[in-house]
Write a structure and sequence with these properties.
Elements (H helix, E strand, L loop, with lengths): L4 E4 L3 H12 L4 E4 L4 H6 L5 E3 H9 L4 H6 L1 E3 L1 E6 L2 E6 H5 L3 E3 L2 H13 L5 E2 L3 E6 L7 E5 L5 E5 L2 E4 L7 H6 L4 E16 L8 E4 L6 E7 L2 E8 L10 H12 L11 E15 L2 E2 L2 E3 L5 E2 L7 H22 L3 H28 L5 H16 L1 H12 L5
Parallel strand pairs: 1-2, 1-12, 2-8, 5-14, 12-19
Antiparallel strand pairs: 3-7, 4-7, 5-6, 9-10, 10-11, 13-16, 13-17, 14-15, 15-16, 17-20, 18-19
This protein binds adenosine-5-diphosphoribose and P-hydroxybenzoic acid (PHB).
The site of adenosine-5-diphosphoribose has 28 residues, from helix 1 and helix 9.
């Protein structure tokens, strides 16, 4: 087998990269070690920045997103007794969209299987070879158990945090940074109409809570919990009661409904540099993880592959190396901005039990709710800075 770009991993990063390359006449093969059913069932975050929506739309993937997605013009920031709306169009001229990453992935897979480049599920033993040469290759075992070799010009490592690509880059030198936060999120999906028009980010002495949604009839809600908590110890009633407490506001209440999914998610920041070794390029979760508080994970993956697609098209069709040579630095500049923003949102909203921290957090929240300059800084980052 031969292709121009071997793409490891069929998450949003790998699938979108394959699509963007195909639109520019560059071929690729996507190798995924899980099944289609598994990949399409993963529940992840649900906020798309303006840039992400524009990129998906321009790539011909916007039909269902524009039909079923919900455009959001702001968020609420809450602390006990106060719920304040940040109006994004007023502050920075941009909006965001609520559309689950699960749906983005389904749209990408459907487009890929409908005449797009090859996408192979359930491959195993993926090994990257000769990435320092101009003709690297990928060895793998296909779904039928047959050993295969994929010869290529470039490998894209879009295989997520637990993939095989990052270790190959790091083996040639580089470094990583990691911060594990002392809290986790307990997330639920519920068949209940959201009781709010915009997402609510709530600070509360008992811990942070987030009111999000997936559609006019499905709510997605999160509670800050200790990472050692067990999901079995959280009955639906206990979860709803905690949500009532943390979102409490006079004359308003959370809408309850059947809980259809329940899980606890760890929170960490992670950055790996460089994002390139020879002809191997990393993008998305393979190179970085952000805590979910700023909803940046998927958007950062889309920004990476936007830069990477342009750089690879230039390399493979014009034989010019300028954009691939600067890819890692340009991508990492945005990665660090989003890493900072996600850390900032996380630090401002999650309670540590320390009273000094609580006073600093409340002071920061009051500042954002009373100063247009402070609110604009949050709005610009939340809705997404331009991809350079
Ligand atoms: N071989 C082939 N595929 C692999 C391998 C491997 N050795 N290891 C992992 N994969 C696959 C995973 O099964 C997964 O489908 O790579 C894919 C990586 O996809 P994601 O984890 O979704 O990562 P990415 O595409 O970068 O998307 C980033 O996902 O986790 C969220 O917050 C994150 O929203 C962000 C987005
Ligand atoms: C979500 O809907 O899953 C979601 C929304 C906003 C966040 C994180 C997650 O900041």
């Amino acid at each position: 087998m031969r292709t121009q770009v071997a793409i490891i991993g069929a998450g949003p990063a790998g699938l979108l990269l394959s699509r963007l390359l195909a639109l520019q006449g560059v071929d690729s093969v996507v190798l995924e070690n899980r099944s289609r059913v598994y990949v399409e069932a993963r529940i992840r975050a649900g906020i798309l920045e303006q840039h992400t929506v524009d990129t998906l739309t321009d790539a011909g993937l916007g039909d269902r997103l524009h039909r079923e997605g919900l455009e959001h013009r702001g968020i609420y920031l809450q602390h006990p007794g106060t719920r304040h709306k940040l109006d994004f169009p007023e502050l920075c001229g941009r909006t965001v969209w609520v559309y689950g990453q699960t749906e983005v992935t389904k749209d990408l897979i459907e487009a890929q299987l409908d005449g797009g480049p090859p996408l192979l599920f359930e491959v195993s033993d993926v090994t990257l070879e000769d990435v320092d040469s101009d003709s690297p290759r990928v060895r793998f075992t296909d779904a039928d158990g047959v050993a295969q070799v994929l010869e290529c010009d470039v490998i894209a490592g879009t295989d997520g945090f637990h993939g095989v690509s990052r270790p190959v880059v790091q083996a040639a030198g580089g470094r990583t940074w990691e911060r594990t936060y002392p809290y986790a999120w307990l997330g639920i999906l519920a068949d209940a109409a959201p009781a709010t028009d915009e997402l609510i980010y709530a600070w509360h002495p008992e811990g942070f809570a987030l009111y999000s949604m997936r559609s006019p009839t499905v709510s997605r809600l999160y509670l800050q919990v200790d990472p050692a908590e067990k999901i079995e110890d959280w009955s639906d009633d206990r979860i709803w009661d905690a949500l009532d407490t943390r979102f409490a506001l006079e004359g308003w209440s959370v809408n309850r409904g059947p809980v259809t999914d329940k899980s606890i998610l760890p929170m960490r920041s992670f950055v790996s540099s460089p994002m390139r070794r020879g002809r191997l390029f990393l993008a998305g979760d393979a190179a970085h993880i952000v805590p979910p508080t700023g909803a940046k994970g998927l958007n950062l993956a889309v920004a990476d592959v936007t830069l990477l697609a342009r750089a690879l098209v230039r390399l493979l069709t014009e034989k010019r190396t300028d954009l691939v040579d600067t890819y890692s630095d340009r991508a990492l500049a945005r990665v660090w901005r989003c890493t900072h923003f996600s850390w900032f949102m996380t630090s401002m909203l999650h309670t540590s039990g320390d009273d000094f921290d609580a006073h600093l957090q409340l002071s920061q929240l009051r500042r954002i709710c009373s100063s247009e300059a402070a609110a604009r800084e949050l709005a610009e980052n939340y809705t997404g800075l331009p991809v350079g």
